[in-house]
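Quarterly update from the structural biology core.
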Amino acid sequence: MEINKLIEISMAYLKSSSYSTNRIYSYNWLWKHGILVYMQSLGKTEYTIEIGNDFILTCNVNGSIGYSHRDMIKSVIVLNDIMTVGKIHIRRRTVDYLLNGKIGSQAQKFMEHLTNLRRNIKTVRDYKKRLSIFIDYLEENEVNNPEEIDEDHILAFISTHAHGESKNITSVKSFLRFIKEEHIIEKDFGYILNNRSRKLRSERERIPSFYSEEEVRKIELSVSRTDGVGKRDYAMVLLASRLGLRVSDIAGLCFNNLDWDTNQIKLTQYKTGNPIILPLLPAVGNAIIDYLRYGRKQSSSDKVFLSCRAPYIPVTSEAVHSAITKAFRVSGVKVDNKHHGGHALRFSLAQRMLELNTPMPVISEALGHRNSDVTRKYVRINLPLLNKCSLNVPPVDDNFYMQKGGCFYV
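Predicted structure, tokenized:
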């Protein structure tokens, strides 16, 4: 394609995709002072992918790529995308967790086993990630065969990889059980990991993080709504604090989930796969409308919440979590060692419902739990109600203390 024509088409695409004026100007400048100058030096006007790739090679100076060169390369990649598919590809960093060696070969069979059991794709991917890290650890310690794995290797791996420890335990335990059932190893390591798992659970048996109604209100009001980003973040925070939605469900909220006629939100939860219907409260509805009218950029996406920079794509769960934690930070509410994310707002909502003596099944339905048993852990946060369950210590006869002349109690 003729280079000036390609640049013209690319400029039109950027404008139609709501790129900022500065970004459009920047790309135009890069094209005119980069690829256009390069093609003029070659005496060519017809752009091809090969010419673009040759130009990218010239941006490598002495084995390194400077900041300005990175921008030049990006501008050529944009031209390649427009010419081949008519739009700019969204490029996200992905990590391919490898399953190497003989142990990795068995881990791959385990992945296939999980897939055959119709486990969630996200679950299988998480197993692969954690087993890849486990296998790398074993290789570093010169363990290359399944039968060479022993207790010390397992315990050392768990103790040195504290981040996501419970998931590491689950992944390794399931994998080792699988290869034992396949007669690849003879020893059952379940007792080791079961003991570690019980210890971990006991360490976590503490009161969940929650905040008072006043603190939650302060967190909500800390979000500035003077621009599109603030309007979006405020609506997302309210969905978590007023309705108890998980960050994954906030990120995946679509227009067809909003029933304005009945003032309801109807969706299928990402985590459980169960449908849920919640009231579209006036404060929440008004916040969403304010964002849609004055904050959301033009897009054909069916998702309600979009990124704040072009190309405007649906937000991720991480972006929702980041918006909520930022609200906590800006609010000045003391978090100390407590969690301060979307889940803390769910617990806080449950606390307020418990204070109003809301029946457990109602709380379970509002929070989208599979059953009331999952909701029972929320009872731990209502200390006044727990105090009502306490029993008086029965009186002890004086003769008990006077056994053997009272020598044990002197």
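The chain is about 55% helix and 5% strand.
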